[in-house]
Amino acid sequence: MDEERNVNAPEQELTEAELNELVRIRMEKLKALQDAGSDPFGIVRYDQQYYSLDVVENFDSLEGKTVRVAGRMMSKRIMGKASFCHLLDYKGGIQVYARLDDLGEEAYAAFKALDMGDILGVEGRVFKTRTGEVSIHAESYTLLSKSLRPLPEKYHGLKDTELRYRQRFVDLIVNPEVRKTFISRSAIISNIRRMLNEKGFIEVETPVLNSTASGASARPFVTHHNTLDLDMYLRIATEIHLKMCIVGGLERVYELGRIFRNEGMDATHNPEFTTIELYQAYTDYNGMMELAEELVSGCCTLVNGATKINYQGMEIDLAAPFARLTMNDAVKRYTGADFMACATDEEARALAKSIGLHFEDKTICRGLLLAEAFDAFAEDKLIQPTFITDYPVENSPLTKRKPNDPRLTERFELFIAGHEYANAFSELNDPIDQRGRFVQQAMERLKGDDEAMMIDEDFCTALEYGMPPTGGMGIGIDRLVMLLTDSATIRDVLLFPTMKPVK
Predict the structure, then answer these.
(1) pLDDT digits (tens, 9 = 90+) for 206-252
(2) What is the distance between the alpha carbons of residues 443 and 368, in angstroms, rounded to a whole number?
(3) Torsion of CA 318, 324, 327, 329, to 10 degrees
(4) What is the pLDDT of residues 369-425, one digit of tens each?
(5) How far apart are CA 374 and CA 388, in angstroms?
(6) What is d(CA 455, CA 436) in angstroms, rounded to the nearest whole number?
(7) Which of 281, 294, 280, 279 is closest to 194 using CA atoms?
(8) Cα separation, 293 vs 289, whole angstroms
(9) Where are the domains positioned within the chain?
(10) Which fold is adopted by the domain 176-322+384-492?
């Protein structure tokens, strides 16, 4: 069987039998190499001198000089006594020109027998072809790793979405735009860390395993600690421990890490995801708005070179300042309903019914109806970046009340393209009020709400020692990366998203 014809035929997909045959052929090639004393897996190091992009960008100074590069063979053209191949490395790709006269008969024959996917080290002179392509004229090469499975057919790449997520390693090899997304993700995270560090924040680490599920309204994952014979929860937020740091005098702290929530999966939700939570003493949610604008705009400019982007067909401008709108005003804008004008919960329930809001709890209060009306009628309308402020106290158990209206809290969420990207508070530091809200949350759990918070006695104790006025914010890293890389689903920005096992 001619492997190259099977791998590269533009309209052909390999059957399982053909794939197995190609693997068998490659295994035989490997055995022949090993029998000849040339085991590619026995090589422990290759001094890679340049990346492909470095050679291309510095051609004027490198022309005619000998360089060493390394990468994966992605294509090969055999032309008798001369051949070309294309090597892919971390920064891109470069063409390699190989000649019988330079390599010698044995090495050139071995070069022609190489397979797509093999990893090579190449040493040679930098030059340009007649078509102007920067290339390397090989003087020697080393097979550094043998690819025992053929890459997906080169004209179409790996297009099966489910397979792409399950075999991200192949996806990264054959789809350059995927590599670019994850390089951008790393740059975004590094930039956020840099910006916060420059503002005097310090990065801390808090427990992933907790005895109480608190800090957010979410269903936790439950595990068991055998030694302590204790049920524990994977953290649903980092908030509680970070605010304990504020109590202890670490006045500007953040943590960037994994969060776990045992909830549904869709285009913007994965059971484990990455957030950054940050807390700053002596500021409030207005200070957090300014910081959110700076972080989002700065990361957008870093990745895209400007603050104007196209996300899934929507033109969005991420230049500061962002629009600001109270939750009640947003609902009024899109439904005409003014929930804060309702004198009683009963009046609010009648208003909700009049605008077609469905709810099952016959005793639901005005604040929760306002929040549900926002989710149902306003959230997906917010395309340009908008801070939605003044959330009802009933769904903001960790937030300070507004001094001029105790029904509401000093909280905002940042919405862009119809989705939430950040959540921030003027943090509640009244231990008596906090305990009362925890009790209310516990009552909701007893009524069947498994996303309501548990009473966190350690946190209540910490607040009793005194916490200064504090602004806090959480930003969803995955969603931010989606936005700035024009990715349609969270799975496109997670290297290894949660997948149901194949049976």
Answers:
(1) 999 999 888 888 899 999 999 999 999 999 999 999 999 999 999 99
(2) 15
(3) -120
(4) 999 999 999 999 999 999 999 999 998 888 999 999 999 999 999 999 999 999 999
(5) 10
(6) 10
(7) 294
(8) 6
(9) 3-155, 176-322+384-492
(10) BirA Bifunctional Protein; domain 2 (3.30.930)
